[in-house]
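ABC transporter permease (Nonomuraea montanisoli), 270 aa
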Amino acid sequence: MSATTLTRRPRGRLGDRLLHAYTWLIIVWLSSPIAVMILFGFNDKKSKSNTSWQGFTLRWYQQLFDISDLTTALKNSLTVAVASTLITVVIGTMLGLALGRHRFRGRGVTNFLVFAAISTPELVMGASLLSLFVSANLPRDALTIIIAHVLFSLSFVTVTVRARVITLDPSLEEAARDLGATAWGTFRQVTLPAVLPGVLSGGMLAFALSIDDYVVTSFVNGSTVTFPLWIIGSVKTGIPPQVNVMGTLIFGIGVLIAVANAVAARRRRT
């Protein structure tokens, strides 16, 4: 009898079954709010304050943009999320490459600041940004929201790209340069494709953090209302079912992008 057979754990143990059941219980618990949101996007709601199931309907999808304030808030959130994500991905990728590949004076301090930004409570970050904008006499609007979102999501992109860069083989870049590639050519044809999965993952994370942020945005928004701010403001009067539909569409698009990214990554590995 081989050593592998002797050390193999018996299947069907009670502990394994309990662990599997507990894992599925956690998954169901975390997914239940999303499932309720999707379900109530089809609820034939009779009044604003009604939270019970009244019947199946598709009219909220047909009347998705009938509430002008809600539509404007969604547009603001998407504009801020796209703009902040693009800026964050560019800066975070360069910073991640620098921290993961090069040694320079102040590298340790920079690493500390990156992780400190991740661990900083949103309340503290929002209050500090508000003080900064007020001290600089900068009017609070969509621009200040974008700046704030770049600042709190930059660290997440940087850490993601840095983790990818650390695993790269530097000999590939050296071989490209030995074959006559310029610095830009080496980056474009070797480095960037290698770190692209980390860049895409960081970008998706930055977009998700931006689209649903409430705490920091509430400090720096001024008169600009985003999707989360509009939802919180409408709690007292009743949340319309269009909110559930918009949330469902945002969630569905996010899932499709994540699946496409995973499929593309698997194809690159094969």
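The chain has twelve helices and no strands. Residues 68-101 form the longest helix (34 residues). ok done for today
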